[in-house]
Amino acid sequence: MHLLRFLSSKPRWVFLLDGCGALITGILLVYLLAPFERHFGMPVEVVRPLAYVAGGFAVYSLSCWALVPKVAARHHRVLLSIIALANSAYCVTTLAMVFAYRARITPLGVAYFVGESLIVGAIVALEFATAARARTVE
C-alpha cells in the first residue's frame, strides 16, 4: 500500500511505469504474439496495430516522464487523464478483439489478453488516482 501511495503522489513515476509497460506490451505483441499466431490465435493483422498503439502510448508516457518536471502541476491531471482514457480504450478494444476472434483465439491467447487487460486496468486506476491527487512533483 505504501508503494501505491508513493506512486500516486509522484506523477513522473506513474508516467515512467506506464511508458515502460507500454513498451513491454509492444515488444511482446511484435516478438511473441505475431510470430506465434497459431499458439495465441489472434491474427497478426490485429496484433500489429495493437503493437503500434502500444508504441505510441510508450512515446507519450515516456515524453511526459521526461517533461513533467518542467510542466506546471495543474497540467499533470490533464496529461494523466489522457493516458488513462487511452489505456482504457486500449483495454476495451483488446477485449473486443478477443470476443470478435473467439472462434480462433486459443486459451493461451485469452489468458494473455485478459492478463494484459487486468494489468493495464490496474495502471489506469493508479493514473486516475494520481490525477485526482496531482500536486507539485519531486
Explained architecture:
The chain has six helices and no strands. The chain has 138 residues and is mainly alpha-helical. Helix 2 runs antiparallel to helix 6 and helix 4 runs antiparallel to helix 5. The chain is elongated, with a radius of gyration of 16 Å. The model has no long low-confidence stretch (mean pLDDT 90).
Strand-helix topology:
Layout: H1 2-8, H2 11-33, H3 37-40, H4 44-67, H5 73-100, H6 107-133
Helix pairs in contact: 2-4, 2-6, 4-5, 5-6
Cα radius of gyration in angstroms = 16 Å
Task: Quickly count the helices.
Answer: 6
Task: Work out the helicity level.
Answer: over 70%
Question: What composes the largest sheet?
Answer: none
Which descriptor suits the 3D outline?
elongated
Overall number of domains = 1
Structural class: mainly alpha
% residues in beta strands? under 5%
Give the terminus-to-terminus CA distance: 20 Å
Condensed summary:
The protein contains six helices and no strands. With 138 residues, it is mainly α. Helix 2 runs antiparallel to helix 4, helix 2 runs antiparallel to helix 6 and helix 4 runs antiparallel to helix 5.
